[in-house]
């Protein structure tokens, strides 16, 4: 009681907390709002305004074009492959890094962060060197009539490379913070490894996992650089939505270009809303653990 009383007596009154003067706060907020308006809000408004500039009929016709539908299907397919692959890799990598001590852990974390520091164009060129006609495995692939570059496998591989840090990086700090006590308790009670994961670990990381999947999916659908190098730009076959936007814009088909771009913009808005919800869930989970 004495300690509590002393702590209470030394706690500063809420009104004495130092804050910035009102005018300074208003200036800071105004600068932030103006910056976001110029660089975020206005571009989105322009995209949607251009997409609907010739009416809803022209907008619907642009999205129903066979080439646009092919790009949308390919984008969704590549995103599904990338997210599924990175989901498995991210969970395994985060589990290994957070739950076990082993030599080379720092090196593994560095490899996971590598796509953040490597240009997507360079990563695409790496796959060209590996799977191209003059590449390391190119002659063998040609001899067996296996197509990697300028086909779905090459696009999927390039997208997986640039997106694989997102799930792992969302889970590693979360799992490190949770520790291993609950898993050890489940194991001591006779639970198998899979039972421990699905009944103990997964419920604790579900919001962080969804957060990583969300970011991975958004990056996969919007990837341009690496995909541009390995796709070959075959119209109606290997063009994803970002690639088709560039092609249509360069051909002065502005309505069609901005119509496809508006889909990517809507994806960004949906991602933003979902990201905010998931961050709130993660904060609530952190508060519950602290209590």
From TrEMBL:
The chain crosses the membrane at residues 26-52, 72-95, 107-134, 146-168, 254-274. This is Sulfate transport system permease protein CysW. Residues 72-279 form the ABC transmembrane type-1 domain. Gene3D superfamilies: MetI-like. Its main location: membrane. One of its GO terms (molecular function) is ABC-type sulfate transporter activity. It is found in: Cell inner membrane. It comes from the Bacteria.
